[in-house]
Amino acid sequence: MRRLCWFCLPFCAAVLCACLGLPFALPVGLGLTAAGILTGWRGRLPVCLLCLGAAAGLLWTQGYALLFRAPAEALAGQTAAFSATVTGFPQATSTGSYSVQVRLHLQDAPDVKVLLYTDSGEMQPGDKISGSASFSLATLVRGENVTYYESKGIFLRASTQGELTVDTADGVSPLLWPVYISQAMKQSAAALFSQDTAGLLAALLTGDKSLLSDGDYAALSRAGAAHIAAVSGLHVSFFVGLLGLFFRRRSRVGAALTVALLCLFSAVAGFTPSVVRACFMAGMALLAPMLGRETDSPTTLTAILFLLLLQNPYAIFSVSLQLSFASVAGILWASDPLYQRLTGWLPKGKGWLPRLRGRAVRFGAASLSVTVGALLLTTPLSAYYFRSVSLVAPLTNLLILWAVSLAFSVGLPVTLLGLALPGLAGTLALPVQWLARYVLAVVRLLGRLSFAALSTDFPLICAWLVFVYALLLVLYLLRYRRGVLPVCVCILTLCAALLGTRLSLLGSSLTVTMLNVGQGQCILLFSQGYTAIIDCGGNEDNAGDIAADYLQTLGISRVDLLILTHCHSDHTNGVEELMARLKVDNLILPELDSDDSESRAQVLALAEDAGAEVTLLEQSVTLLLGQTKLNLYAPLVNSEDLNENSLFILASQGEFDLLVTGDADSFSESVFLKYYDLPDIEALVAGHHGSATSTGEALLDALTPELCLISSGYNTYGHPSQQVLARLEQRDIAVYRTDRAGHVTIQSGG
């Protein structure tokens, strides 16, 4: 078995190198092939397998790119006629159109996967469609290079042009049965379960997160339980346990039936890497005794990775694949020793009470050891991809895994029953809903805690992570077995990192942080223990979550003042999640906003529910935030355009002055300069995300800022405009942009 591992492991490593752009991959692959043949002829089998595995990985990646990727990318930038077969159900997008995965038929080349955007949702898997479409690279999304689609084997996106012809399929191909089963299960789950639990249960049973609210998914992520919302190895273990109630898995027939149903389960789940990996490993564990072979987990793990990359080498970029294999590797490496250490002290007592206590301790130890093992290697990936590390994940999983297991084991047959007997299934669904409510209550409670999840945007938090893993590596190399001292060291250094991060705020009289929220704005002000937020909106994930994560990492759970310059969604759409996670004492927004503004009505309703005191600013006021003076200037221009009704905010501390103008245009800026005397300022927040109509020459010449902050992300408006950047450059004003620099922090008086 280990010989297979010697081949598969270098194959996977070579695929990664080739996908990352290893130069001269073809000649290197040919050279390794020759080396493998030579060493094999000399009887050095391990070296032969290593060389041949690496050569196969390099050569296969090159061949796959020529066979599948190159024909697809040749269409990029063109508008052409096409014909395709629908392979999935259309999904509604935020723009009112539909996206659907299709198999595009090419001449003189294999079919390729394409994500098609169309105005019509009247199609289903198996239908033949034709028309005209404009094609673009799937690796370029919103102006950035991404690997999400190519990890799924999709290299093109297409938008239909004109009328689309749909030929309904006469029958459903057996290959598409799993897609229809999955869709039927999603519809059954949505119909059976109540509105407050349907999102979680649909995600738990089918992996479809479309019904799960952004707030609940964010809570799951912070609490370290997001894995339950995507079908993975955890769900496969529940599924195997459920099948064990019906089949004798030690019998050949029971093992064969279980393996067959595992294949169906994997197909219904969409053959995601985590599910395929888990089903393959479970199947190997069941079949090995039947075939008289021993299971070897490292070999099995590398073999399934080999098969996944053989199907699509670019799957190596899949975050779910990386997390899945890292979690299993961590469990195999660390969980069993940790479990033995946690349970080794248990006495072998007699009587029902000692046995009950022993079972409870072993259950808790098993849950904790598996969770810690999984987190061991997935934490660096989470920190890199999601910029966050959950500290409460072990506690969360200890509290909810039993409920998740029951909810899945009961919810799956109930959902299937709902396809035939919805009335009976609705009654049986009631206990499942209470389990889901318990899980949501736990993750919401733990997710609200300060330090529940740490943002890796802070250098000291990143340094602590590096230190912890360096320490683990040293202890592993030294074969150090005692765990109390290293745990204490990690906890103490974490406390030092958190304290140092918090002291960085207290060390200055005013700290200004402009968060990277995409095309929107969210500015944090810290002054001597007081916190204010100017605007909270954007299109990068959820601005409220980004702000709350940042503040909770600092140990801040209360916002003294939330100021909204105006009520456009790119300045307010994060307020709901912000108020759900943090206590907001005071809210200020301009009175001149239109009374029928939908965003304004939502914000006022949220403030009322949260108990925040609301001030509708009609006249300019001066407030104190710690040692910082805030001058809030009411709009002087009463316009139907909310941008022109933006508040102006001047934050002054000592000789440092910061001006925020919201989305006001140059006309509003000139009126503002006419009626108010302002000092020369040190920092200016560019108006309207760097729009050409804002941050005018009159404002720059009158206030002479030394630096300018621009909050922008991907957009189709051309923000920040070249005109504004030229004005700033002509005046030697330093520019800091969130779309390039990420979060930007300025400190004054320290």
Describe the structure.
The protein is of the alpha/beta class and about 750 residues long. About 50% of the residues lie in helices and about 20% in strands. It has 24 helices and 24 strands. The strands form five sheets. The protein has a seven-stranded mixed beta sheet. Helix 5 crosses helix 14 (about 420-450), helix 10 packs antiparallel against helix 11 and helix 15 runs antiparallel to helix 16 (about 485-505). The longest helix has about 35 residues, at about 350-385. It is globular, with a radius of gyration of 29 Å. The mean pLDDT is about 90.
Secondary structure: elements and pairs:
Elements: H1 2-19, H2 25-41, H3 45-73, E1 79-86, E2 91-92, E3 98-104, E4 112-118, E5 128-137, E6 140-141, E7 144-145, E8 154-167, H4 177-192, H5 195-206, H6 214-222, H7 233-243, H8 252-268, H9 273-290, H10 297-311, H11 319-343, H12 352-386, E9 388-390, H13 393-417, H14 422-448, E10 453-455, H15 459-477, H16 484-506, E11 510-514, E12 521-527, E13 530-537, H17 543-553, E14 558-563, H18 569-572, H19 575-581, E15 583-590, H20 598-610, E16 613-617, E17 621-625, E18 628-633, E19 648-653, E20 656-660, H21 666-675, E21 683-685, H22 697-703, E22 707-710, H23 722-730, E23 734-737, H24 738-741, E24 744-748
Parallel strand pairs: 4-8, 13-14, 14-15, 15-16, 20-21, 21-22, 22-23
Antiparallel strand pairs: 1-3, 1-5, 2-3, 3-4, 5-8, 6-7, 9-10, 11-12, 11-24, 12-13, 17-18, 18-19, 19-20
Helix pairs in contact: 1-3, 1-10, 2-3, 4-5, 4-8, 5-14, 6-14, 7-9, 8-9, 9-10, 10-11, 11-12, 12-13, 13-14, 15-16, 17-19, 19-20, 21-22
